[in-house]
Design a protein that fits this description.
This protein is about 50% helix and about 15% strand. With about 80 residues, it is an alpha+beta fold. Helix 1 crosses helix 2.
Length: about 80
């Protein structure tokens, strides 16, 4: 059942060693899919694993680079 545990935006930021605002940007771009529960966004552990596998080696450090990486992954270039 521990694989069903959802992570908050802050927990994801801690796991990925990044800032909360970066997680927000990745969610807004569509790289990290989240479920909105009340006022909070929650992320599944499977979604984080998928992000790690799919975006390995790509630069998602800012919005422009994240959109470019998203387009590469989704074959939009």
């Amino acid at each position: 059942m521990s694989d069903l545990q959802m992570l908050t935006q802050d927990e994801v930021a801690d796991l990925l060693n990044s800032h909360r605002d970066t997680i927000t940007m990745l969610r807004e771009v569509g790289i990290l899919r989240a479920t909105k529960i009340g006022k909070c966004y929650m992320f599944s552990q499977a979604e984080i694993k998928h992000f790690q596998e799919t975006y390995k080696g790509l630069d998602v450090s800012n919005r422009v680079k994240a959109i470019e990486s998203y387009n590469i992954v989704n074959g939009l270039n």
